[in-house]
Write a structure and sequence with these properties.
The structure is a homopentamer.
Chain A lengths: L3 H4 L14 H6 L13 E2 L1 H20 L9 H18 L2 H13 L2 E2 L4 H18 L7 H4 L4 H12 L3 H50 L7 H52 L4 H10 L12
Antiparallel strand pairs in A: 1-2
């Protein structure tokens, strides 16, 4: 707020702290800054964790001999289908689709680590200050995959006032958080439903078995089948849905932190602030060992 | 508050931003605006989710042969009746009736989606500003099914001051929320009681069976009957009551959001504000991809 | 606070909005207002709910034949006595007595419904304003059963300043809430202890049975007896104590709402405020369908 | 704060509301006030509750015959020792010792009831005002058992300024609360560990028994022994540790309330305030039926 | 903030309360103060608690004879490996490594007790005031093991302004807390996963056993093996992970308290405040029995 006064010189004299923007930008077609390490990778923690856990279970089944005995289509339908159906009751079809997409995104680590994002934000701001906001135009296409960064670049290029740019970016960050929170709520609810469906399936099997005790030799296998839904419910709830819900929440928090750095950069460029001030603001949001100091 | 000054011109000069209201309204009987997509539909998520889950269970019963063995009138009475009776202790008879009505409403998606509601609010405000508040009179009947929208139209037609209209609508929205929260609390309590009633029924069956072990061949069927109440309790609690309670809470939140848009529109008309300001206010309440811009 | 100025005319000129109080009261011995529907009734939700739940269980026992097998004095002592004893550890003897009294009060619906209470508060205030505060003296005896209403009448008759009267009534309402919260905490703790005592009793029975497996024919009955404490614990915890704790909390909230209306009335009389203002204040505390309008 | 002005008369004219302090105190060696009912008693709720619960269990064991079968040294070691060891991991050795001392204190009702404490605070303040602060000197020894009261008397005798005395007493009250909260946290953690240790002991016994099924007649007794740790864990967790943790919290709250009255008294004496003001302050902290009025 | 004025005398006259700093420091090479009891010890509560609990279990196994029957490599893999894999899903590989390091640190009591830390902070501040900030230079190496203390010494030696030094130290303390909170969250999540993995392993074993009931003599041993994963899950979750998570949280809180004292000292030296003021500030953060008074 009090920084608005710093933006006034734009109309009159050139700002003393930043180099003259538009003129230079026209003279030399300044190349946009190289964005440090901003790419999607597979999220190894999710994939290896999930894979290793499932492999361990499959190994235990194979070791015991009859791994085939653990697959039962009716049980899969009751637990998987039942969990999906019951979870849908509490939400809506679009919510369910969004949750499925969110599961897919937990396999990809699209959020850059905080230090890279901080360097990206600083170099964007620095470049915009040296060569004028318009010089960031070529970056708009390159940042398509990171919506808030993309929007921040667009807002800098469009030359929106700082308060408006910050408000727009903040709403977008909050909407991302809300979307992630809904997806995590869907998974968390499903993680509660899955063992309940497993119990219900087991009760069905138990009652059917107990009603037909005439042949004692069939008791064992019938009970084995009855227990399979409990087994599926435990795996689905404890090994898949509950950890993924926690992951979605954690990723959303990290993404909000990183997007907050782009917001700071966009506001700083629009206010034509001293680059050192932006660095200081960014550093207060970083843990001590990740702090940047480019002006020493 | 500070906008009250904007309402002063009414007494003296015609307001500059809105077209002259009452006179025009008399000259051409302006048709009320068509309300975009404001109708009740079945809530497919609730109905399909609940139906699919129950079908899965019935399928599993049929597959196992003796589906008839899963119906036991005494067990139904203990679990359904017991859950209703015990839940009534904590509430009152009217609360129970309200919860039953709330269950019915989860089958119907009466709240329009946020984007339609935003367009409705804007077009109502726009129409009232162009043709005078009285021109909305024909809409009072058409909006009967959406109480807060109906009340907002009435208040605009009656010409109440903005602060009073907003206070009345806000109390109504809060009362709706409180009603929904009570209904959800009834269902959540019932969802806790149902498995307890199932356990109690099973204990009754077990004790009766164990007291009569003389005929070993009757142990199996007796135990099957004993387990049926646990089965009913799990289905009632985990598959019906608990998801419906979550749905009621979720619907109430969306309804409060949508009704908040009507409140903004009624206040804006009563204050004779610039329509752009209403659009901006409404947009701050919408996620980015649903924002409206009718003035570009 | 800012209304204190409205009370100043008392010393000098007669207040313009209220009729002259003391003189009239002496002239015609104004009958106190009839209090609308202010009587104790049985709380049918509690009594019918509890009764129906217990009848269902007894019916299930009778249906299975050996209802007598479900009564075992030692088991009753372990579960009932143990729950009482263990709950006492966490509280004090007076707390336990207060909780017992609170259970008794859940059978009686002594709090009038909100609409009656609002009318009572308004008619008391109206009468006091027309005939002077002393004219409420005959009502002091009639309101004995509703402590806060009784105290409000006394404070009006005594002519205490508004701030003092409100402070006294507010402390009383808060003390009522605190008392109810302690009673509910006792019951909620007991509802946690009861199933634990049931489990402990069953473990005692199981260990005793397992140590004497010499006679196989006695296994069934011994195990039946062992399970009875679990049965008692589930009934005591889930069907009696937990619902009653929720009821006590709910009743205390409604009582605080109703007593808040009497507080408003007493303050309004002491401040000699315009009756319309009291009606407006009371209406902000009522849901829309219960609002009162006596001045249209 | 604003009362400091009331303390100024000390320098000049004698305060009008309180009798001249130091001079009189020298003239007649005013006996310190008799402290009303300030003594330690056994906390009957804790002792009788715990005793009755354990007696009920022992009675049930004796009734079933083989009470001796319920004592097994290895099981006692696993449950008691294991609970202590595992709880120690999360805390420190001094924390464990403090928790043990706190258990001892739950057997003693050292906190006087609120009404007695209020009278004590008032009579101390009254005496100090009549006979000078030094006249409380003989009470320092008599109040040793109640640390905050003792410290309050010392601070009055020492003549510390009101703000300092209040700060010192407040820190002491908060430190007491923190100590009690740590002790309750230790017990609550132990109450979670105890049933887990019981389960682990039972699993050990079950696995050992199942590996040696050669002699069917030993199955029963071996399983009985295996269940004993579950039995111990339930008793230790649900009947002893969890209720005592709740009691420690409750006692700490009551003690903080009572010690707050001594703080008010010490501050009032140091500020030489009107005794009626102290009575009013104390009364706002008491429930309505315990309020004191010594000036009517 | 208001203390900045106290720092102004530096420019003009020498401060009256502190001895002249830099000059003296040059004259006599003042030895840095001896740091009282600042060394790492093993955390006996963690080590003895964990050791005693495991010894008790091993003793129970040995007592029952077949201790070897309790080791099963496949079960270890399922429970240990599965818990690690599933926990990794919700976090990242660096988070897992950090949690492992945090477990190691719970074995070492590196945080000095609060009283020693208070004395350290006071003596550092005192020495810096007497001999100038530079005299602390030799201590920078000696305090390597306590990062915040080390950083505080560095900042004093560097002569940073008080506000900057406090901000840097505060961020470091908060980052420590955040790191500890993440590590505790990893362990707490793992403590939830472990029993679920145990249950899944047992279900695998049960289903395999029930499918092969042809040889009744193998039922017992097969079931024993099946139960071993539940046994491992209970030990890993209840006896190891959950207590260590609580310990990490507790240690982090104590460390933040102790580091807060170093922050106070660094700020006090940079502001050249009266040493008595620092002592008072430190004492408000200590429990009454640990307070320091070096100026009486």
């Amino acid at each position: 707020m009090s920084d608005r006064s710093a933006a006034q010189p734009r109309a009159g004299a050139p700002p003393p702290t930043s180099s003259p923007p538009a003129a230079d930008a026209g003279a030399r077609p300044a190349r946009p800054p190289a964005l440090p390490r901003l790419r999607r990778r597979l999220d190894l923690a999710t994939i290896l964790g999930l894979g290793a856990a499932l492999l361990l279970i499959i190994g235990a089944l194979a070791l015991g001999g009859g791994a085939g005995a653990f697959f039962d289509l009716a049980s899969v339908l009751i637990v998987l289908g039942g969990t999906a159906a019951v979870t849908t009751i509490s939400f809506s079809v679009p919510d369910m689709r969004a949750a499925a997409r969110a599961i897919g995104r937990t396999m990809v680590a699209s959020t850059p680590d905080v230090a890279s994002a901080a360097r990206t934000a600083l170099s964007l701001a620095d470049h915009a200050r040296r060569n004028g906001p318009l010089s960031l135009h070529p970056l708009a296409a390159a940042t398509k995959g990171w919506p808030v960064l993309h929007r921040a670049v667009e807002l800098i290029v469009d030359g929106l006032p700082a308060d408006d740019a910050e408000r727009i970016l903040r709403t977008e960050i909050e909407a991302n958080m809300a979307r992630a929170r809904t997806a995590a709520a869907v998974l968390r609810r499903a993680a509660e439903v899955a063992p309940a469906m497993g119990l219900i399936g087991t009760l069905v099997g138990l009652v059917q078995m107990l009603g037909n005790l005439s042949d004692p030799s069939s008791v064992g296998p019938a009970m084995a089948v009855a227990l399979i839904t409990t087994f599926y419910g435990a795996i689905l709830g404890s090994m898949v849905l509950s950890p993924l819900a926690a992951k979605i929440d954690r990723n959303a928090e990290r993404e909000a932190l990183v997007d907050g750095l782009y917001l700071l950069a966009a506001g700083s460029v629009a206010r034509q602030e001293n680059p050192r001030r932006l660095e200081m603001l960014i550093n207060t949001m970083l843990p001590p060992d990740l702090r940047i100091s480019s002006f020493d």
